[in-house]
Amino acid sequence: MNDPRLQRIEELALDRALVGLSPSEELELEGLLAATGRALDPEIELAAAALDGALSGRRTALPESLAARLAASAAHLRPPAALTPVKRIGTPAAAHSTALPAWSGWLAAAAAGAVALFAWLGREGAVEPARLRAELLARAATLERAWSEPGPPTGASGDVVWSQDEQTGVMRIAGLAPNDPTVEQYQLWIFDETQEHPVDGGVFDVVAGEILVPIDAKLPVAKPTLFAVTREKPGGVVVSDQKRIVLVAPI
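Above: the chain's sequence. Below: its structure in token form.
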């Protein structure tokens, strides 16, 4: 793993799945994912949830489909003889000393799933922005609009690819000033002719070079008229005053 950003993503993803991240770490992870075009596999969270159930002593039956996926993913790995209990935020210290029960049934699958977390991090995420962009561009109905700068030109460029039928898309951005996620973040807005306020399309971070960012529309978009990117406080805002628009792409 030559790119230190990918190594950091691996560290944060494991911490996020097993013990949780602080707000600043969440922002760091989101920024790294956006910068590298990576996406986390949701099954990592499912595996961690299964392991958490085992460690806390719950006896709820694991869904057969999930058990099969976890077992298949870790079929080539040998489960360890014992695991050190994971310290969970907000759990009394006494709970951490509880001995693990013997490996059997769904508990074995959950433990194998925890080991498989490391293997899952090595494969591509379920949604690759580059692949999604290419697939959408291959469809005649897909919208593709170039970015322009409403203020003094800075050299930023790129485009927006959007599928109205699937309510999904990808932003390609190059040359936009990198941001400090602890101070501010970029946020996408989708202006809809049928809605009073633009739809939140998700927050993201920018690093030097070109990035691909999946669009995460928080509400269905009926008649898009404009895509716009603003600078906002970390985590974004519910309604923007639109005074900090840096990029626009009219439909």
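Residues 76-112, 114-126 have pLDDT under 50 and may be disordered.
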